[in-house]
Write a structure and sequence with these properties.
Strand content: 15-25%
Strand order of the largest sheet: 1-3-2
Radius of gyration: 12 Å
Number of domains: 1
Shape: globular
Largest sheet: 3 strands, mixed
Distance between the termini: 7 Å
Order of helices and strands: HEEEHH
Oligomer: single chain
Structural class: alpha+beta
């Protein structure tokens, strides 16, 4: 299970950064609450979202992008495996 804490949010943001993405929080009319600009490698999330919604948006985005595990630090890789395991058990 993924905990909805600011620390979890920071770990997810770090995971995206290590894969070359910029995570930004902006105003916008996003149907899903977020937008992915794949060519520019930018993930934009509604800035009015609370921590739980931001985490859920990043988790949703992970299903739409390719995560290159070779770019991740050991800590991030461990966190990624924890997230994948939580999804399987849910």
């Amino acid at each position: 299970m993924v905990r909805y804490t600011p620390t979890t949010l920071q770990k997810l943001e770090q995971l995206f950064r290590e894969n070359g993405f910029i995570v930004r929080y902006e105003k916008g009319n996003f149907k899903a609450g977020y937008c992915i600009l794949l060519e520019k490698r930018v993930a934009v999330i509604n800035k009015y979202f609370d921590t739980e919604s931001r985490i859920n948006s990043l988790l949703d985005m992970m299903g739409e992008i390719e995560i290159d595990e070779s770019k991740l630090t050991e800590k991030s890789l461990e966190f990624l495996h924890h997230i994948k395991e939580a999804k399987v058990n849910a």
